[in-house]
Specification:
Low-confidence stretches: none
Shape: globular
Number of strands: 7
Strand content: 15-25%
Number of helices: 4
Structural class: alpha/beta
Helix content: 40-55%
Distance between the termini: 44 Å
Mean pLDDT: 95
Oligomer: single chain
Strand order of the largest sheet: 1-2-4-6-7
Order of helices and strands: EEEHEEHEHEH
Amino acid sequence: MKFTVDKHEKYILLKLNESKLNSLISPQLKSELILMNTEGQRNIIFDLSQVKFADSSGLSSLLVGHRLCKNASGTFILTGLNDAVARLVTISQLDNVLTIVPTPEEAIDLVFMEEIEKELKKEAK
């Protein structure tokens, strides 16, 4: 599996450099997501701009990422979905579960907004 990881203080930007997110890639991706989560990363931005095809096992790995981040009080954001992948996500009704934004920049803004909200809620208590 080819991917790049760009670590920042508040988030990780993970970019999959593969054209397919399928049963060949999914187990490795799940392992990588679990490892990131174990290292304390709770906000993951997953850039799928290179991905042209996804199947059910690929969607399963996205749900793993979502669950890990949610359980760690973080955010899992998908960005850069092409039409075919976006259609599969919509057909699976995962667009109601997963956070999807068009660009990595918008995802970064969203992470910072959510982090600020969490800080404000802590201070209000």
